[in-house]
Amino acid sequence: MAENEKSPEEKKQQQPKEGAEAKPVEGKQAPDKPDADATAQPTGKPDQQKKKEKKQKQVAKEDEPVKKKEHDENFNYIIRIVNTDINGENNIVQGLTQIKGIGRHIATFIADTAGVDRKLKFGNLPETEIEKLKEVLENIDEYAPSWMLNYRKDAYTGEDIHLISTDVATRLRDDINMMKMIRSYRGVRHEYGLKVRGQRTSSNGRKGLALGVSKRKEAPAASGKKEESEKK
């Protein structure tokens, strides 16, 4: 057996054990491993990443439930004035416009004459100020000038009045019935359901059975043969 050759037992002893760390050789340093963060390349542009983050934040804000402002115990959510329910969250001008026959212009006039702040919410108004608004609403003819009223020169009395709430619909129905009774041009047009104020009718306002071209249906041939046989 040659001198250089070694027995298998000696070879096993010289091999390092599994799991044992290799000792660094003196005078030599092990190369440092490169950091993963340093080697990793950015997947996208920074501007795109910022845009994505903004979108995610916006979506998160939208998903958050909206917190309603808490009101006092005395806050009225619904107030009834002149047979109409007014939302207490609206301010004075917006709330008054919910009444039929009241617009923004006359609503501001009513709030000023009653001495109520326009920006206040209806739910925060005390009963005394609500009573003032009711008084002005019921007597608009006395407070407002004639050019601001919506029904001037009444046919029966000749006075200038302002109609609100259910009075608007009832007076309109009565006027139409009066025009039909006296057989005026407008009354006849109302009866036939046609335009009243001189609008075109050939190209606009078409409705009913006369709409479109109607074709007559021809009788089938079989029915004609049966009639001839019966005559014979």
Question: Overview of this structure, please?
Answer:
- It is a single chain.
- The chain contains ten helices and two strands; from the N terminus they run αααββααααααα.
- It is mainly alpha-helical and 232 residues long.
- A two-stranded antiparallel ribbon has the order 1-2.
- The longest helix has 18 residues, at 46-63.
- The model has no long low-confidence stretch (mean pLDDT 78).
Regions with pLDDT < 50 over 5+ consecutive residues?
Answer: none
Alpha carbon gyration radius:
45 Å
Strand order in the largest sheet: 1-2
What structural class do helix, strand and pairing data support? mainly alpha
Task: Quote the distance from N terminus to C terminus.
Answer: 138 Å
Structure characteristics:
single chain, 232 residues, mainly alpha, 3% strand, 2 strands, two-stranded antiparallel sheet
What's the gist of this structure?
This protein is mostly helical.
List the helices and strands and how they pair.
Blueprint: H1 8-14, H2 36-39, H3 46-63, E1 78-81, E2 84-87, H4 92-96, H5 104-114, H6 127-138, H7 140-143, H8 166-181, H9 185-192, H10 221-231
Antiparallel strand pairs: 1-2
Helix pairs in contact: 5-6, 8-9
